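Data card: per-record layout.
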Amino acid sequence: MGLPMNILIGNAISLIAGLFIIASLIVNDDKRAYKYQIFNAAILVIASFFFESLVGAVIMAIATIRLTMVYKDKFSIRWAIFFLILSTGVGLAVNTLGLVGLIPIVAVIQITICNYAYKDIRWIKLSFIVNEAFYIFYFMLISDYVSTLIQMLTVAIGSVSYVKLVSDRNAMATLQEASSEGA
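The structure for this 183-residue chain is written out next.
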């Protein structure tokens, strides 16, 4: 298969992965969000091979394992450090895309730190949105146009979902405050 066919197949696979990334930002439950993130990362491993991005495939494979650990509540500071070193070292070793190949490495560093640091769904969603912004540029630069559009859509949907979540929580806090004052 030539590069145009690979790009076409890679974009089709990325579309499937994109549905899971969107789902991860719509839900308001951290477990479900991480489950969808796992599916997304695993499917992007496959898509990365069609885009001839070894760094993308490796980073997404490592991300799948890391996200599974987060999902199963096994992600400690030691594991965070391990995955930061592994992702950076292996990512740099297999990077054949020059500066473009550094984008997923930076993105995985950002999300790994956030996976360890944040337990509240508001911060988890916000970290996902920031991470998606990195991938918008990366996917655009490797000709994964479907993922670029899906990431843009995901950032928009995720931002709306985040604002709604924060608004709902603020409204709930106001109601609780008012009911405790009235009691």
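Known properties of this structure: The chain has a mean pLDDT of 90. The longest helix spans residues 145-182.

See the next section for split statistics.
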